[in-house]
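Quick one: structure for this chain?
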Amino acid sequence: MRTQSLRIITIAIIIILVMSTAAYATVTASEYIAATSAWITRDGNDVKVNFFIVGTNMMDKIGVKYIYLYEKNGNTWSLVEAFDYTDPSYASTMMGSNTSAKSGHVTYSGYASKHYYADCRFYAEKDGGSDTFQQDTPTSVGTSP
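Got it. Here's what it folds into:
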């Protein structure tokens, strides 16, 4: 009981922190997904796509199935990287099991002067049923060269 209460308090604190710094979406009408958040942080050329998902209960699987990263070139957005949870390099980062929430990030070596955004495909599964939710991050603004 104490562990579950501590988990709920921890999740609540994380949600509050995420809400104050990132795009946050509450998913209504889902039996599986309570809330999601996705945002980009930058460190020089590195583009980090961060995500957070909360299930409505303890989930069999929960996380993000795909992250599509786009880069702006002139007036056009181009897909530069696709992250897939079935890729062994990202499996444990992007998808969790037997938990009520999952957070993580993937990193792309981009360019400090470019703008990026990510299309995140969230997923939660319980007892053979599942739901997905699509969310874009806000655009990450590059620095002037």
